[in-house]
Amino acid sequence: MKIFIDTANLEKIREVNSWGILDGVTTNPSLIAKENTDFEALVGEICKIVNGPISAEVMSVKASDMVVEARKLAAINKNVVIKVPMTEEGLKATKMLSDEGIPVNMTLVFSAAQALLACKAGAKYISPFVGRFDDVGEDGMRLISEIMDILDSYDFDTEVIVASIRHPIHVTQAARMGAHIATIPYDVLKKMFNHPLTDIGIKRFQDDWAKVPKK
Ligand code: G3P
Predict the structure, then answer these.
(1) Which of 3, 4, 5, 6 to mutate to test the pocket of ligand 1 (most atoms within 8 A of CB)?
(2) What is the pTM of this model?
(3) Which of 14, 118, 165, 202 has CB 3.0 to 4.6 Å from 106, enough for a Cys bridge?
(4) Is 215 a catalytic site residue?
(5) Any residues with CB less than 8 A from the CB of 153 and at least 6 apart, and which?
(6) Ligand 1 centroid distance, CA of 181 (Å)
(7) How far, in Å, from the CA of 210 to the mean position of ligand 1?
(8) Residue 203 burial (CB < 10 Å; 0-12/13-18/19+)?
(9) How many other CB atoms are found less than 10 A from the CB of residue 14?
């Protein structure tokens, strides 16, 4: 499974990239707003750090406007992927952009039916939001399972980006279901390192090693 980071913060992207496990980056308008800087310049900087798909979202409502916005973003770097919301206009834009060879990440997916339509429109990626689905009393990971069932039955080129991840269990469940990608917030990535038995084990080895006679 590929691992993306879900942030627009350059410092965090640099740090996680240095671990050697990072395959791409997803941003969204809220994450961009936190950085308080020029959107396109920021996307360009992210592309310099990570050599993989970098999602940047369009904000227009009409398909024709989304396409104009998307072309501008796609011109920043060959790795830019256009995030398009799951609406009727978004589907039209996805089809137009995919036909032009511009990869689309269809975002705000909350049902298997929406996922199917995104695949049909030619989306390279779809982003079901598991955490936000859990938040309203639904089962985010069951949604991933349903979408993977559909993808297993056909030969769509679409990859599932499990998004809105809240904790490491979301990540491991996504991996067990064969989801292609998990886009993970920085804090959750840090939590994936931690296990109390690892810490206890390291301390015990260090304490014992200190007792070994040294030359
Ligand atoms: O970037 C899309 C998605 O991962 C947002 O997550 O935490 O705002 O629900 P969250």
Answers:
(1) 6
(2) 0.96
(3) 118
(4) no
(5) none
(6) 14
(7) 46
(8) exposed
(9) 14
CA 205 to centroid of ligand 1, rounded, Å: 39
First to last CA, the chain: 46
| Residue 136: how many other CB atoms lie within 10 Å | 8
Does the beta carbon of 164 sit less than 6 angstroms from any atom of ligand 1? yes
Q: Which amino acid is at 122?
A: G
For ligand 1, say whether the CB of 4 is within 6 Å of any of its atoms.
Answer: no
Tens-digit pLDDT profile for residues 201-214: 999 999 999 999 99
The residue whose C-alpha atom lies closest to atom 7 belonging to ligand 1 is 164
Q: Does domain 2-210 have CATH number 3.20.20.70?
A: yes
How far is residue 188's CA from residue 171's CA, in Å, rounded to a whole number? Answer: 9
Length of the chain: 215
User: Tokens 């390291």 identify what position?
Assistant: 202
Tokens of 209: 């090693």
Q: Which of 5, 28, 55, 167 to mutate to test the pocket of ligand 1 (most atoms within 8 A of CB)?
A: 28
The tokens describing 28, both together, are 């969204």
Angstrom distance (rounded) from CA 83 to CA 109: 12
What's the CA gap between 184 and 208, in Å, rounded?
37
pLDDT in tens, 133-175: 999 999 999 999 999 999 999 999 999 999 999 999 999 999 9
